[in-house]
Structure formats: C-alpha cells, structure tokens
Amino acid sequence: MEERFILIRDRIAEIENENVLTGDLVGAFRDMAHFIMDAFAYYDEIKERGVLTRTEYEKWQDRLFYFEDPKNYDNSFLCPKYAVEKLGDDGRLLAALFADMQSLRIWAAEKNEDMITIFAELFVQIYCCYSADSEADPRGAYEGALDAFRSFYYDYMDDFCNMAVVSQVRPATGVVGDILKNADLNDTTYLYRYGIHVGENELSMAEFLNAMSEDEIEKMARTYTEGYRIGFDNTGKDIGIKEVVGIHYPIGFERMVRAAIRQFNEIGLDASVIREPFLSFMGRGKGKQGCYTTSLNKQFEYDHKDDKSLYYDKAYVERRLECLDTAFSHNADMAKKYGGPAVIEVFGESRFDPKNDEANTRLSEKQQHLDVHDKSRASEITYTYIPGEERSFTIISYPLPCIGDNFDEIFKKVVEINTLDYVLYRDMQQRIIDVLDRGYQVRVHGSGENRTDIVVKLHELTDPKRQTNFENCVADVNIPVGEVFTSPVLEGTQGVLNVSFVYLGDYTFKDLQLTFKDGMVTDYTCSNFEKEEENRRFIEDNILFHHESLPIGEFAIGTNTTAYRAGRDLGISDRYPILIAEKTGPHFAVGDTCYSREEDVVTKNPDGKEIVARDNSVSILRKSDNPEKAYFNCHTDITIPFAELGYITVDMPDGTSEDIIRDGRFVVPGTEPLNIPLDE
C-alpha cells in the first residue's frame, strides 16, 4: 500500500498539467486533481505534526471545502447541474465521483493512508477512461468510467462494511476517540481535527458549553445517561450484559459528551462513535447521525443523496449484504455487548427548501424496490447480531446558536423542558389513558383550515385490569416527557391527516396531506413545488421512502404544552425537531410501530399494566411465510399543533363518547395543569 500511495500521488500530480483531454473535461479533471493533491498535502502535515495551529486549520478548511462552499458550488463540477450543462451525462457521473472524493478530507484527518490510496486510484482509473489511452475501449469512456465506479464499491465493500461495524460496536478510536478522551476542550481548535467543516454553530456551541459550570454540564449529561439506563430498567432488559453504548453527537458538544462518557463508565459502558455518512453508498444527504456537523451546503447534500443509483444493482446489493453479515460475524462478540444508541440531536437551522434539478441522480423505480429490500435485509442481519429484545436507546435535543439572538434564553428553556416533573406528567397522562382504554376508537378532527378528519381503531382489551392500549411515555428513552401512544388496529383506521407546516428530517413540508384507508396510505400531496408530480415525488422520497404505501404505526397525544408554549413565545415552533414537536400535539407516525422488532417483549406502564397494542396486521407478518413484509425500516412522526386541533374524542362501546381535547384544550379531569401554558 505504501508503494501504491507514492505511485498514485505522483500520477495525479502529472494529471494537473496534462493536455490529453479536450473541452470542459480538462477543467473537471483538473479541479478534482487539484483537490486530491490538496488532500495529500493536508495528510502530510497531519502525519508529520499531528496537531496544527488554529490559523493553519482555518486555511486548510478554506482550501478543502472550496468547491462545496455555496459561494463556489453552483459554478463547479461538484454541482450536477453545472456539470451536466457542460458535459452531459458524463457530468452527472463526474459530479458524483467528485462528491465521493470529498471523503479524502476525513481520511487525511484520520491519517488513513490506505483509504486515501484507493480513492485516488479510483480517480486515476476513471481519468484513464477519458484520456487518449482509453480510445480503444469499445464501450466508450462513459461506460468504462461507470464500470470502474461500480467495481470500486463492489471490490472494496468488505473493507467498508467491516469499518462500519467496528466503529458501531467497539469503543471509539482514531481522531474521534482521541478528541473525546484527551483533547483540551478549552481550546476550540480541537474542532478542526475531525476533518469535517467547522462553522459558527460548532465554535459558538463549544464556547457556550465551556462557559457553563461543571455542575450544569454534569446535570445535562446525567439527564441523557439516566434516560438510557432507565430505558433498560423500564423494559426489564439487563444493562449488565452490555459493554458499549453508541454515542451520536454534533461536534461542539464534546464537553457534555465527555461528562456523559464518564457517567456511562460508572455503569460499565464504554462509548463507540460512528462517522456521519459522507459517501454515496453510506446514504450521504439522508439525515444526520453519528459524529456530525451542521451542513455547510444542504443543496450539495440534496443534489448527491442518490448518487449510488449510478452503480446500484442486484449484484451490488447481494455483495453488500454478504459483506455486512461477514463483518458482523467477525465482530459477533462485541455486537452482542452493544447496548444501542444514545443520541444528541440539535435544531435551529434556517428552513431548507431544496431545489430539484433533472441533472441530479435519482433511483429508478426498480432501484427503489431494491433499496427497500436492501434496507430490510440489512436490518434483519443487524438484529441477528444485536438482538432488539436486549438493547435500548435514548435521544435528547438541544438548540443551536443559529436559532436566534436569544439563544441563551432558548437553551435554558429547552433544558427546563428536558427536565420537567416526571411524576406530574406520569399521573396526568395516566388519567388520559384511563379514558382512552374504555373506548374502541378515537376521532381526531382539525379546526379552521386544517382538514384532518381521521378515525383511529383501538385494540380490544380482554383484561382491562391488567392491560392497556397506550404507553405512558415519560422522560427515559424519549426525552422530553409528554405523550401517550399506541399502535392502532389498521383495519377501520381511516381518514385524512393534514398539517399546514411540518419539519421532517432536514426538509420542510407545506400543507402536507395524507389519506388513509384501513390504516394504509392511499394518497398524498403537499404544496412545496408548483408541479404536483414533484410534490408527490418529494413525499415518496422523504416520507414513504420508496414504499408503495405505509401503515400508521403510531397514534399519540402529545401533552408537553410547556414546549408548545415555549415554541410560540420564542418563535421557534417551526424549528423544533420531531423529538420535541411530537410532544406538542397529537401525532401520527407512518411506517413501523414503536415496538418494531420487539413486539414479543412484554412492556408495562408505571402502573403495572401490560401494553398489548404492540402489533398490527402488518408487523405480525414476521410470523408468517413472508416475514420480509413485516417491516419498512422507517417511522416518521407528523404532528398536528394545538392551534390547528378541534377535538380528540373517544367513542365508547355503549354509544357515548368522551373528549380528551376540545377546542385545543385538555378536558379530562386532573389534566388542568396542561392547559396553564395554553391559557397564560
């Protein structure tokens, strides 16, 4: 590999000055060659010196993120629209190649010479397809380059899968591990060591946390770690057999994360950390996870989210699944000891309205079906080695400095929301559940211009003294406190769900409407784009995730009116992540149930009653001859805000009904404190 590294570096240095190509191909390959040589030079400095000065890091960041920077992106060959305008279909392929070459920034930061080498070799191989040396290839330059791209991921998939599994189930090492264990967090220069873009959010967040007292940091971390521990306790799972917790966090939060790792160590857990997806086959642009940063250019991520369509076929999927299974089998001992993820997510960025362009890569209909199969089978493999009935999770959310000038006030309010009185909410929510458990269906109706009109069918309780339909969700795995939820009976659940505005993942949906029959999505629309075809495709890509339909996996009533009121008073309702937004009104989730792959694990509420609504007529297919049809590997919550809600009424078997909410206010006796934030 050392010899290959030297040879490929010398070859790329020559490409910068060669004149064997014509037209705009010259510019495309020279830009890529220049970027790769910068990555080599950055690697040299990191390898020789280890840590650079703040000024040096900033200069390198300007160079290595030049093409992704919004100021330069639209007129670069990294942008599919520009590349296709200049080069046709070749431009689409080369833009995807350029996007994957951006990974060299991370490989250099990690001093991973092997990965730098193989990606540089891929670039040269594709360059040769277009150079004079390849004119004899009867397939033509494009087909040769496409085959090289496809073969690269096919050939090296075992390495990629093993790296992914190791980083998931084994304690963090490399740059990330060293930062979390050893870096001087008082000097925010450490942020640049990750190899990912450092912006004002990351710098300001790190400085903000550095100004907090040790006691404040410990309390924030304790809320997070205790939520994880309680998640095991509440479901009767043995945390003592686990050795690793998977920490997901935004860079800038290292001080809290370091405190959390100490607290996890106290209960016998070390921390693993995965990297944010940064390659086409990883799912780049399809959501933040792992150790991540706020986006420098969301349009870049959106444009390149389906780049794998260039090489995605049945043979590739079979190869990937085989390598994934092999990687897990080689790490089976640690996979068994992996306890699940502990997630810190952030919110506050400005709304992003993506621009569609025909130049962007897209999965074909055949590839979409293949993608569904791929994800389903990958989940099955993962759950084979990391049994769902033995693991748990927790998730908590905090605002980013970019949320507004009153960031300090907003942050303090979110900390308050994350630590609301567990007992008070538990008791009020139990009163709501007591009413719901007497009914056979629930009707949810919007108010004003909201067109929601939906009936939710509930499971029959054969022993009401010992059984319940709804989980009393307090602040453990799902922070903050504030919802009761169930998995509805699909048959008989039908109607229209409508919200004027909702933020799902990285995207805003305007006037979103889903229609259901027997619990399944039958129609859908929104008003994001002028063309209805684009609106439907937007939903298919980001809510249905290429499934022809999805069931209602969850119906819930959010009770966190404090969060709802704070959102309105502070002007941040439209910035709330799903984690908080779902607690601020009734919501429906499309996709798998909340008990996905754990339906047979007995789950009880604090009052001791067993939650029986863990299955529906789709998830139960896991016990049929077609178990692959039981799961969709997605779960998207869509919340109706109190201001758009008319009523939630429970229909009783005797023909009467009883309100949970009427005119946007809770009316169940004993829940009056929930209305205080709404009425003040």
Provide a brief overview of the structure.
The chain has 680 residues and is of the alpha+beta class.
Structural commentary:
This protein has 680 residues and is of the alpha+beta class. It has three domains: 2-155; 164-395, no CATH class; 420-679, no CATH class. The chain is 42% helix and 17% strand. The chain is built from 24 helices and 20 strands. The strands form four sheets. Strands 13-12-11-7-6-18-19-20 form an eight-stranded antiparallel β-sheet. Strands 1, 2, 3, 4 and 5 form a five-stranded parallel β-sheet that branches. Helix 1 crosses helix 2 (24-49), helix 5 (80-87) crosses helix 6 and helix 10 (157-169) packs across helix 16.
The number of helical elements comes to 24
What class do helices, strands and sheet pairing give? alpha+beta
Please state the overall shape, judged from the principal axes of the Cα atoms. globular
In quaternary terms, these chains amount to single chain
User: What Rg, in angstroms, do the CA atoms define?
Assistant: 26 Å
Strand order of the largest sheet: 13-12-11-7-6-18-19-20
Which residue ranges are poorly predicted, with pLDDT under 50 across at least 5 consecutive positions? none
Distance between the termini: 68 Å
Strand elements, count: 20
Largest sheet geometry: 8 strands, antiparallel
Strand content: 15-25%
Assign a percent range to the helix content: 40-55%
How many distinct folded domains?
A: 3
Q: What's the mean pLDDT score? A: 94
